Structure formats: C-alpha cells, structure tokens
C-alpha cells in the first residue's frame, strides 16, 4: 500500500528569469516539484535552509521559503492552494505555466 | 496628447541605462536582493508567484496607437502574448525575466513610455478620467496638470523613500470618474466666477485594510500653486507618516490619527514656512504642456448620423452595443466608444497582442490616434464619429471585444488574485468568470441596469471592492477560499465605502448570491431607479434578508 | 567607514563625542542634538567648531536656534528605505542652513544623486562599495524635473532649461 509522507520542500525564484524552482537532493534547483527533496525531519529542513541561503548568496535564486508538501509514489504535492498553483501555473490559463511546459507536479491535480 | 521633447527622451534613456546597470550589479552579486528590491520596484518589476511581473506606466491612461502596438510587441516577444490592464490605468505583464527587463524598458523608451515608479514607496501613476477631453460635463481637460505632476514626481529625490506607496487621482468634471476621494491625494477642478481654474485638494482617501474617504484641505487652490502645495503635503507625510507598521503607513492613517484639522494645519504651516520662490516656470511649463491637449481637429457634423441610425435598425446586435457602450461626446456627431475587455467568461482586463493591435488600428483610423485605459479595465476611443461606430464595432466583433456590457453587471472589475499574485488570499478571476457566464445574456444585464461589481483577491483591495456597488473580497478560511460580499460602495463624487452584508460564501455560491441581490433590487426599485440608489434608499436589510433568510 | 565627499574618499576632520564624553580643548566636534540642547551654555563657549547629529525623529524646528552656530549637521538613515532624512535635509536647506550636511547609514550608491540634490555634502558609507561605484552613481541621471535643488556640474533642470530667461531658483551656497 502506498503511503503519503508529509514534510517540507524548499522553493525559490530563479534570479535571472523569475521561474519558480524547487531544491533537489543533489542541491540543484528544478522547475518541477516532483524533483524536489522532501524534508521529513527538522535536521533535513535546516540543511535545506542552509543550502538555499548559500544559493541566494551565489545569486542563483532569491525569495526562498519552505512549503508544506506531501509525497505519494515519488510525486510531490504542495498542501496549500497558493503553493500548489506555484507548482502548476494559474488555474485560469491552463495553457500557461508549468502545466503547459510539462514541468507541473504529477500528483492529483487540484480542482479548478 | 503629450509628446516627449529632447529632455524627456534623454531622461528615460538614462533611466533605462541606470536600471541595466542595477540589474547587472544584482546578477553579479554586488547588491543584495534587499537592496535591489526597492530599485527594481521603482521600475515596476515585481517578483510574483510564477515569475517576475512588470507594470508599465500609462500616464493618466492615455496612449497612442503606436504605443499600444509596442505594448503588443512586448507582450508577444517578452511575455506570453497578452497583457493585463489594471485598476490604475497601467498594463501588467506576468511572465517577465529579469534579464530581459532592461531591453523591455528600452523598447518602451523608444515609444516614449516607461515603467518608472509603478511600484515602490514613491508617487505612482497619476490617474484621471478616462473620458478626459471628450465628456460634456467636463470643466476642462485635467490631463495637463496630470502631466505636470507626473514630471514633477518622477525621480523626486526627496520623495522616493516614503513610508508607503502614494497615489494621486484627478478629475476635471464634477461627476468624478477617477475615484479621487479614495486616493492619497485627489484633485478636483473648479472654476471661480472669473473663470479661473482652481483645484480642490483632498487628502487621505484609500482602500486596502482600512478604507477611508479623503478630506478636503483646500477648496480652491490656484493652479499655479499646485506643485509647491503638493510638496508641502508630501513633506509632512514623509516626515510624520508611520514607518513602524506597514499596514498603518499610508497618509490616510496620518490624517486619521492627527485629525483632519491638525493635519491641514501641519500642511499649511509647512507651506507657509517654505513657499515656492516663484511659480512662473511652473505656469510656463503647464502652458507648454496644455498645447499638447488642444481639442482635436473635429469635423463640423450634424447631431443626426443617418448611417449610424440605419446600421442600428438593420443590426440589433450593433444597436444593443451602441446603447450600452457609447457615451455622449461634447461635440455633435461624435461619440465616446467604450471597448469592453470583459468578454463572456473571460479574464477581466486582459488583451492579447493581436487585440492590442486591432485597437491601435481603430484608434489610428477613427479616433485621432488616441486610446485611453479606464480604471475599470476597459479601453476607450474617445473621439469617434457616430458614422464610424459601425465599422469600429465590426472590427471589435471580429476580435472578441464587442461585449455589449459596459457599466452593466458583466463589466466586472477584478484584480489578478491568487492565480498570479503573491499577496492574494483567494482567487478572483474564476469568480468573475462564473458571474460573467451566469449573466451572459445582455438583455438580462440591461434588466439589472447600471451596476459596478468589483472583486479583490485579498485585503489589499487592488480590485477596489470597497467602492463597488457590489464588492466581493476573497479570503482564506482554513485553507478554503471564502468570499465576503459588500454593498453600497461608490467611487463617485458621493463616495462611500461598502458595508459587509453578512457571513461569506464558498466560491460556487457566489454567482447565485449576486443574482439574489440583483433580483431583490429589481423587486424593490422604483421606476428607473438604479441599483446604488435603491440600496442607499433602503439600506442593507432587505438584501441581508434575501441572502440569509432560512431556505 | 569611508567618508565620501566631492566624489572622493577623504579623511574625517570631525570627532563624534558621546553624550557623557568630556569636551576636548578644541577641534571639530559633533554632539547629539540632545546634548546640544542640554549643554548649550557650555557648548556655546567651545573654542573649536561645533557640529550636531540628529536622529531622524528629531524635528528640525527645534534645531532652528542653533542653525547658525553649527558647521555640520549629521543626519541618520537607519535603513536606506527610511526616507525621512531627505525631507530633514531639504527643510534645513530651505530654512537657510549653509553648513555641511552629512548622511550616515547603510547607504547605496543608487541614493547618492538624491542625497546631493536635497543638500547633502558628505556621506559616511559602507566600505562594501568601491569608490568607482560611488563615482559612477553620482552622475547616472543628468536631468531632473524638480526645481530648486542642488546640482553638481553637468546636471540640468528640465523645466528651467525649457523656459530660460526666468529668475532661476536661488540656491543658497553652502559648504562642500
């Protein structure tokens, strides 16, 4: 049986183009939330914050913050509606944003 | 309309170079985000939910066909092929890259435009009546003074780090279409017995968390004193406006906390202490600007337009659009065309690059090459011959801009909301779309008559819901979107803030709630009485009862 | 912290004194406004040169009696986004103050022109930015729409240039 794990994901905007990105296990930033590392414990969260702060310093990303998320079968979904929209795109223009670029999270889509 | 001289050109060129340098220094790490943020905001660049958003200034909402075409070019080349016209007569692009922004500012400078001070704690776009220069009730065109204030406020060294944003609106007509009473400074034109122009100066209006109506500090300020007097107001605000709490930092809070009389005396004391040395140059500059706003070369036409009348007889769709979307022009044979950017089920205020190009062509052919953006997120062609109205309409039909809902329930004003905006607490656009679809039938809309519906996706009230006849505020209740309805707001010269009717509604309940409100109005109105009037006569009670009485 | 004046880093001739510190025999000293007002009887007899440092919540009206007695006024920018000092500076210049006006805080080169224009002469700045950054920033905009502000060489007023032949706004000459 699949279990849902709950934790936090680090997100930010890529500095040069403003794209919403998510911090992965390897320390890269991906446009796709499914690639993100889900921090399940406080120590892991601290590590995410440290890594993000470093990349802000290195002018890669800006505006970093943690979002509550859950993972099922390797796919990640943000809990709050606002953050879910950050991972998919505007609900009123399904032809724009990650949902159109193929970089939206693949977890069950939020009801429009 | 105003045209840049060599000085204006040089100014925006240098400003663009300055931003290019600032962006480069940000990308190299020389300045931090905290340091860069106010600098990029003062060039209109926000960081939002999905990408950067750029807000381009359309000074007092007036632009030429060429400028509108350039906005279309920018939408196509640097964004996703569309732009959003805002409640402050500007345009926003939602998918901008920082690395492209200096090039976009250059493209704007090439057509005498910019994004200066469309955000940040500084003086923002000066807005005015979208029918300026064309409406019959106008005393005089308010745009020359708007342009004077625009220049004076641009990169003002003393007032670029205010406690908070600062918005100015101006009306040249007694019937206020510019919402001056809910702006930080509102100016209303008056004429004395000698026919000289003076300005009523109002301070401390605003919406957001704490909506307030402005107070009058001067009844009749001679025009030549406008700039030095505004300086006195700004200096008092800059020195004494609160900086301890972002939500109490607008000038309306200062006016409220000091009291109108004390605030006024502070301004007068400052004005007396530091008067302008001379206003001759201000007067000269205003006269120079005014020359750009002379009446266009109208033809001498009859009030009766046979082609127009015949077209209405032959085409009921056109007749309907003409009835709702055309407004009386001060010159015989001309009309004001209001292009609705609220198609059925559409996103209020959005236009594609192609639609912008169509509007440019229409302006060039039929309206002396001038367009206006209204704070209701529509576009105006202010000087169209009645005889050309049918041709204009046909072109609008072909590009899905012929919704005959101007000023009716389908003419919804909505902020971008949670779909785009990092500040929002709820989505606004889907609610607008649902209401628009519910009332798609124009005959139904006409049945309800003139009514302003405003939707804001958060308490910052960028949708101006406080001054909607019907206002909707989107909030978050335990992770669910939740909508509060207010009634009885108005942004006219008889301004009022709407009152909350009662508990809020889930998104899917809102369209029915609006219908209940409108049907209640129809049941209770006297012959020819408009919605706001009925509400003011009867108060919220009958509407509350209709909405909340047990089923 | 470097002192920027006339587009160069210069040495500071002034000494800032704590409220409790003993007065030196002479020299150029800066005291807080609190001390200036409280100890005026003593300070008025100081053989050296006096300066005062204002908090940006001090009202310049209260400074009026001392304006001609001080050769430097230091205004603080607690955060570079706190713009009160621009109006304090402007007010002081409009009131006729002709001494040196100094800005202190976490200032950005991007503010330099604004600060010059409202009447500042010198700046205690963060050593993060090299001199070239300050120099480059000092003339990024060669035009301003506002009248009656202070200009460095090469800076123009748009309205005045459009309408020549009218009495120019008289700038009070001042130190620096």
Explain this structure to me?
The complex is a heterotrimer of chains A (about 110), B (about 550) and C (about 180). Chain A is of the alpha+beta class. Chain A has helices at about 40-55, 80-90, 100; strands at about 5-15, 20-25, 30, 60-70, 75-80. Chain A has a five-stranded antiparallel sheet, with helices on one face. The mean pLDDT of chain A is about 90. In chain B, the strands form four sheets. Chain B has a five-stranded antiparallel sheet with strand order 1-2-5-4-13. In chain B, strands 3-14-15-12-11 form a five-stranded antiparallel sheet. In chain B, strands 6-7-8-9-10 form a five-stranded mixed sheet. The longest helix of chain B is centred in the first third of the chain and has 22 residues, at about 5-25. Chain B is globular. Chain B starts with 5 loop residues before the first helix and ends with a helix. The mean pLDDT of chain B is about 95. Chain C is an alpha/beta fold. Chain C has helices at about 35-40, 40-45, 60-65, 85-95, 110-120, 130-135, 160; strands at about 5, 10, 15, 30, 50-55, 70-75, 100-105, 120-125, 145, 155. In chain C, the strands form two sheets. An eight-stranded mixed sheet of chain C has the order 2-1-8-7-6-5-4-3. Chain C has a two-stranded parallel ribbon with strand order 9-10. The mean pLDDT of chain C is about 90. Chains in contact: A-B, B-C. The interface between B and C is large, with 43 and 43 residues.
Helix-strand makeup class of chain C? alpha/beta
Oligomeric state as shown: heterotrimer
Percent helix of chain A, as a range, is 25-40%
- Label the overall shape of chain A: globular
- Fraction in helix of chain C: 25-40%
The main sheet of chain C orders its strands as 2-1-8-7-6-5-4-3
Which chain pair has the greatest contact?
B-C, 43 and 43 residues
Low-confidence stretches of chain A: none
Strand and helix order of chain A: EEEHEEHH
Percent strand of chain A:
25-35%
User: What is the count of β-strands of chain C?
Assistant: 10
Largest sheet of chain C: 8 strands, mixed
Give the helix tally of chain C: 7
Shape of chain C: globular
